[in-house]
Amino acid sequence: MNAIVEELLAGEKRQTGTADMMLQLAEWAAASYARYDRAAVDRIAKAAAEAAFALAGPLADAAVKETGFGVAEHKKIKNEICSRGIYDAYKGEDFCSKRVIAEQKIVEVPRAAGIVFALTPSTNPVCTAFFKVLLALMTRNAIIISPHPLAKKSTAEGVLAMAKAAEQAGAPAGIIQVITEPNLPLINHVMQSPRVNVILATGGTPMVRAAYSSGNPAIGVGPGNAPAFVDASADLNAAAKRITGSKSFDNSILCTNESVVVAEESIADKLLQALGKAGAYVAKPEEVDDIREYLFGLGSFNVDALGKSAVEIAGKVGIKVPNSTKVILTPIDRVGIDEALSKEKLCPVLGFVRVPHVHAGISTARALIRMSGAGHSAAIHSSNPATILGYASAVKALRVVVNAPCAQGAAGFGTHLAPSFTIGTGYFGRSSVGENIGPKHLVNWTRIAYSDEASEAFGDYAALETWNNQPPLPVGRDAPMTIGRLQEGAERADESLFAQAGGGAMTDEIAAMREEIRRIVLEELRSAFRK
Predict the structure, then answer these.
(1) Helix (H, G, I), strand (E, B) or coil at 200
(2) Helix and strand tally (H, E) in the chain?
């Protein structure tokens, strides 16, 4: 074999060659899936959601074991929410059928994005993968998941289970894929591929920035640093339970969790007492110094504390706390870049600062978001609508959760925000989307617009759908695969073959298709280098 071809099939270049084959398979799958009707899409999405739901507990345990982050019981809840819960939340919405707006003489035709490349984090690995796969399936997109290397095994297991269920329900082979051995060169190669139509980036700031600079459309999220303002009108016991429950959920690994409690001075002592009863330990001044040194002594957040429990962190610092402790409160006298404990902390350590009045509380919350978390989330506990509106209008957060746990509420659980594990931070946070990401962000609409002249009659579209006018694509060995883009105008597939693909498993076809792709790629590479 030509030495150049051998080089391409070895080492790092072999990895990128494998990724290109995944992309080519995804491209065909996306083109085929875009022709499915709503009933078929719903059947496929439901099957994938149920497969994920069945693994919610085992994969929660596996993720904690693999990463060392969080609480398995809480991860199970997140996995369930992001499987059957997400399906139930959106099953009544139609992202496949046309919309006719007769009074405006407009017809809207849904157009799937195509190939979604999704990055998932180590902190919320399995639930984020479940969430993104279901969004892609509901909108007739193909998706390739790139898990964080620290969580690659548990994430891949969940994604492969969903892929198997989706294909058994009639999805094209390759509609869901996962990179089982992720690394930065490989991820960058896929992110920059012209075959990728949109990147869903959930992870650290460097990865999100890389997604935005890839040259492909991207939806990324920035860091959080949510202030939780408690004013004099708040129900203090309820606020304390909500804050401690939120901050301790999965050991505070969600980016929507509270970072600093901002308490109006007149109720601050009572609030501290209520927080103590709810499971918070109030650190002494000398203990606050030790905690600050442990978390930020090296200049940035100590990843050894990431997702660890309050009791574990106290042990590392040398503080004795009750075994029932959920959160460690660290009273501080100011917020700003010179106070590290006012930064984002993905662990159950919560800053606590007093302010003399409401206006100072709003200013303090604004300062926290200026440091980090612009466009992300904030919370307020109050019964005064004027204060709530003033707070929401002043703080640069695009989700303001009122009288609810911020970690769950900002993500759309326990509030009526869109349920999501990808939080758009908008222009404040240098993101292209400012709301919770949902299926609607993975589909565009072609709009057929008639002349507005009264004499121009509007057509009758009632009995028509886009899939009525499109032949199904071939499957298996007959699929139109090439080294370049998917070929348009493929011959019509045999109807019995398509019917089989729509209603049963495609296990035999998958192996045949992958082998055919490898053969074609190798042959074209050989041909290219003979010239």
Answers:
(1) strand
(2) 19, 15
Q: Answer yes or no: is 425 within a domain.
A: no
**Residue tagged active-site, from 96, 255, 347, 406:** 255
Do residues 214 and 235 both lie within one domain?
Answer: no
How do residues 185-225 score in pLDDT, each as one tens digit? 888 899 999 999 999 988 667 777 778 788 888 888 778 99
CA dist., res. 419 & res. 376, Å (int): 15
Are 205 and 278 contained in the same domain? no
Q: Is there a single domain that holds both residue 339 and residue 391? A: yes
**At 299, which amino acid appears?**
G
Comparing CA positions, the residue from 195, 227, 432, 494 lying closest to residue 341 is 227
Q: Looking at the domain assignment, is residue 424 inside a domain?
A: no
Centre a 10 Å sphere on the Cβ of residue 390 and count the other Cβ atoms it contains: 16
How far is Cα 379 from Cα 400, in angstroms, rounded to an integer? 5
Question: What's the CA gap between 345 and 252, in Å, rounded?
Answer: 8
**Residue 429 covered by a domain:** no
Both 265 and 212 in a single domain? no
Distance between CA 78 and CA 158 in Å, rounded?
13
Return the DSSP state at 262.
E
- The secondary structure of 116-168 as a DSSP string is EEEE--SSSHHHHHHHHHHHHHHTT-EEEEE--GGGHHHHHHHHHHHHHHHHH
Nearest to 144 by CA among 165, 167, 170, 118: 118
Identify the weakest region by mean pLDDT among 10-19, 277-286, 316-325, 520-529: 520-529
Q: How many CA atoms lie within 13 A of 448 on its CB side?
A: 16
Q: What SS3 class is residue 223? A: coil
Q: Does residue 144 carry a pLDDT above 90?
A: yes
Residue 336 per-residue DSSP state: B
Q: Is 255 a catalytic residue?
A: yes
Q: Is residue 194 domain-shared with residue 230, that is, in the same domain?
A: no
Lowest mean pLDDT among 115-124, 176-185, 507-516: 507-516
Measured on CA atoms in the order 187, 190, 193, 198, is the torsion positive or negative? negative
For residues 20 and 93, state if they share a domain: yes
Give me the phi and psi of 111, to 5 degrees please: -130, 115
Determine the Cα–Cα distance for residues 306 and 344; give it in Å rounded to an integer: 11
CB 347 within 8 A of CB 294: no
pTM for this prediction: 0.85
| Residue 418 maps to a domain | no
Residues 262 and 401 occupy one common structural domain: yes
Average pLDDT over residues 440-449: 96
